[in-house]
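Chapter summary example: a protein plus zinc ion.
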Amino acid sequence: MDPVRHQRRALGFLSGILAKNNVAHALVFTGDAGLGKKQAAEHFAMARNCEGTPDPESAMFGDQGPCGVCGSCRKILSGNHPDVLFVEKDGVSVKIAQVRALLSVLAMRPSEAKIRVVVITDAGAMTPESSNALLKALEEPSETTCFVLLAGQKSELLPTVVSRCQEIRFSPLPVSFLVQSLEARGVDRDLGQACALLAGGSLDNALELASEQGLARRNWLINQICALEDQGMGQALLLAEFLARDKKAAQDDLNWIRTWLRDLLVSQYAPQHVINKDLMGLVTSRAKKISPESLLDRLQAVTDCEKDLARNVNTRLSMETLCLRLSSGG
Ligand SMILES: [Zn+2]
């Protein structure tokens, strides 16, 4: 039930650069949360430091994969390797103090690893100050340190950061895998089907939808957004006020709005790419036909709002701007 095992293209690419020993000193893994990026980064750190012999049958990246049982692999798997560092956001952003602390560690030699691996798990949540501080490290490649940045999409990062990283894209997971994963966790089959279809290929999303109130909240939200079309500014501001009451919930809501807009875009304008026909009815039933330009504008509004929240712009103001843009078509 490993989501990352469905990332054949990304894993194939990683095993290729490992085989040629041609690994850039900074990589960025892009794709939604819940596609296996973090697990791939962990195994990549293991592969670069493995002291054993990989078993191609069980190891990720085939014969370039880590053994999973040597001292180094075990330490990484248990989160206890001193030279494999995970930097997660603190609150809503990766703060400058975190990057400064990281840089002071990087100024020293790795204590035991061949290659120290720094994984910034929420690279899209770096503030401009944090990004610029990190940039210094990216500009001075070290033989012994490799960076792996995890982000939803490249546009979340400063262009100067992106230009120093090699991008590896992670794909949406198959609906059938999501259905199986939910069933294995005891989710009812019909509910599991609906959640898997609406999850945008992300296991995290599917699990969230299948949780108590998950699907109901998502459906309520999408109904509200659809209704904004006919209700004008006053209703948009009321909805914004309601959504802004809980910042964490607001961030989840943004995820659902984005997933829905993307599904709409594909099902209305590129139906040949819809993986599962059941999705079309589920997604478009309540939505009016919106032009592709307007859908892209609305997606941009979601991205802008996420950035504002990460930058600590007032939540109510951010959500008001979002709801007005969603109601007016950009
Ligand atoms: Zn190993």
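Key point: The first strand starts at residue 26 and ends at 30.
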